[in-house]
């Protein structure tokens, strides 16, 4: 019931912002599917809430937990590309149902081996947020994409805030771990029902309008472009020929698309994403211990500060509309300025002489990181092309996963020198990212699409 009220409130807030924000999603190809987009906001809220609300990841043994992380690293690109081929509806349903199966197996597991088995479907297919973002990208124009993505991130962030609270309460009960797993699986099933009942006819209409509006700005070569538009799955009109074709043909198509991304010159976009991700992770690494050592505050205060930052992140997602209008929808400038601000705030934290400077840096960092995260995704889709949005978002997610692997290692090394070592290293990495953006300014500002080499 609480989840229902939260999702309804989130959807209501988005509707109010559509009215107050002037244009918002209105006036774009997505105007005809405003109800569909708002339903996706609710899906994002439920997906993030159920993923964190499971609360079971932290209770897993180390090896199954590591197995899950490794599978997430390699599967995000494949699943994202697969969604480009078979269509968003069926890929999203498959990911939700198989994730539900994983949590159900987790609730019935009694040994470490069964724990590990239960993590396989979740590790491979829990990419519902990425597919939802790709679907939103299909629906809206480039002009409105940062606004809609920001609102979607805000809705999902509410779930990330509430999920651990509810999951922590449930795990305190007798057999709470198993009950929480079953509840999480049940919410996944309910979410699958919501996705099935979405007004997909509106999605098909808006996707065709969006495709026509973006005609001539495709990222692939002429032959690849023809192949893409000859497949109805890329614009939402799913056919049984594509869905039920041989799995080996689907795998070959996925590998061909991934090779096209790997051979493109999008490396600088993904490198910027990696560097900024690691810089932010270094800021938060050993956050509680660093504050206790530097300023003598208790870990509880650090927890409150992190919750405060998460709440501000939700607000930042809702403010992307006015910000993009202020910058005249120049995503590159927003990303450059937000990254520069992030670098400055991490430096402020590393050199802070009082806890008030830490609070100040955390306050504005919540805004800069949220805005930067949304803008880097938008820049990936703008330069890489919207027809491969699932693949691009999957690769970006894999890049972020690599950052999560690298950051603890770098943090441990830097921590040996000083408690301020990790954030200081983060400042250096953020500076490199800013230099890369400046060096490729012409490509980012031209809004031309990068040619992906076709096999």
Automatic annotation (TrEMBL):
Residue ranges, compositional bias (Low complexity): 1-12
Gene Ontology CC, one term: membrane
Keyword set includes DNA repair: no
Keyword Calcium belongs to the record: no
Localization annotation: Membrane
Keywords of the record: Membrane, Transmembrane, Transmembrane helix, Transport
Primary location group: membrane
SUPFAM superfamilies assigned: MFS general substrate transporter (SSF103473)
Topology with respect to the bilayer: Multi-pass membrane protein
InterPro entries: MFS (IPR011701), MFS_trans_sf (IPR036259), Sugar_transporter_CS (IPR005829), Tet-R_TetA/multi-R_MdtG-like (IPR001958)
Record region (Disordered): 1-30
PANTHER family: MAJOR FACILITATOR SUPERFAMILY DOMAIN-CONTAINING PROTEIN 10, MAJOR FACILITATOR SUPERFAMILY DOMAIN-CONTAINING PROTEIN 9
Family note: Belongs to the major facilitator superfamily.
Protein name, UniProt field: MFSD9 protein
């Amino acid at each position: 019931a609480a989840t229902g009220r939260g999702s309804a409130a989130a959807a209501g807030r988005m509707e109010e912002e559509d009215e107050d924000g002037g244009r918002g999603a209105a006036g774009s190809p997505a105007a005809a599917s405003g109800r569909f987009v708002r339903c996706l906001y609710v899906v994002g809220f439920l997906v993030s809430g159920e993923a964190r609300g499971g609360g079971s990841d932290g209770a897993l043994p180390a090896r199954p937990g590591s197995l899950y992380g490794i599978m997430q690293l390699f599967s995000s690109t494949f699943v994202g590309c697969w969604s480009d081929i078979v269509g968003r509806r069926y890929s999203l349903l498959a990911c939700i149902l198989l994730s539900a199966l994983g949590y159900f197996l987790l609730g019935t597991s009694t040994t470490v081996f069964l724990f590990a088995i239960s993590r396989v479907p979740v590790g491979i297919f829990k990419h519902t947020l990425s597919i939802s973002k790709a679907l939103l990208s299909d629906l809206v124009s480039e002009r409105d994409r940062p606004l809609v993505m920001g609102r979607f991130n805000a809705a999902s962030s509410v779930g990330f805030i509430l999920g651990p609270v509810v999951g922590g309460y449930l795990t305190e009960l007798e057999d709470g771990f198993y009950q929480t797993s079953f509840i999480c699986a049940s919410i996944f099933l309910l979410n699958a029902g919501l996705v099935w009942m979405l007004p997909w006819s509106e999605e098909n209409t808006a996707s065709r309008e969006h495709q026509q509006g973006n005609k001539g700005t495709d990222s692939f070569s002429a032959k690849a472009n023809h192949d893409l538009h000859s497949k109805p799955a890329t614009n939402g009109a799913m056919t049984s020929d594509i869905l039920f074709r041989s799995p080996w043909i689907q795998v070959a198509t996925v590998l061909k698309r991934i090779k096209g991304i790997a051979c493109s010159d999008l490396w600088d976009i993904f490198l910027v994403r990696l560097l900024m991700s690691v810089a932010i992770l270094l800021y938060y690494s050993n956050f509680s211990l660093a504050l206790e050592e530097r300023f003598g505050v208790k870990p509880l205060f650090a927890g409150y500060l992190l919750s405060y930052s998460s709440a501000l992140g939700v607000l930042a997602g809702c403010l992307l509309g006015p910000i993009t209008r202020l910058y005249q929808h120049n995503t590159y400038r927003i990303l450059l300025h937000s990254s520069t601000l992030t670098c400055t705030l991490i430096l402020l934290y590393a050199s802070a002489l009082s806890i008030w400077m830490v609070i100040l840096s955390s306050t504005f960092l919540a805004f800069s990181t949220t805005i930067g995260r949304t803008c880097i995704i938008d820049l990936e889709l703008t330069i890489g092309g919207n027809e491969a949005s699932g693949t691009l978002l999957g690769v970006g997610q894999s890049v972020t996963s690599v950052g999560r692997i690298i950051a603890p290692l770098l943090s441990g090394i830097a921590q040996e020198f000083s408690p301020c070592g990790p954030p200081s290293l983060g400042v250096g990495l953020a500076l490199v990212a800013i230099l890369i953006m400046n060096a490729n300014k012409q490509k980012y500002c031209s809004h031309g699409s990068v040619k992906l080499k076709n096999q």
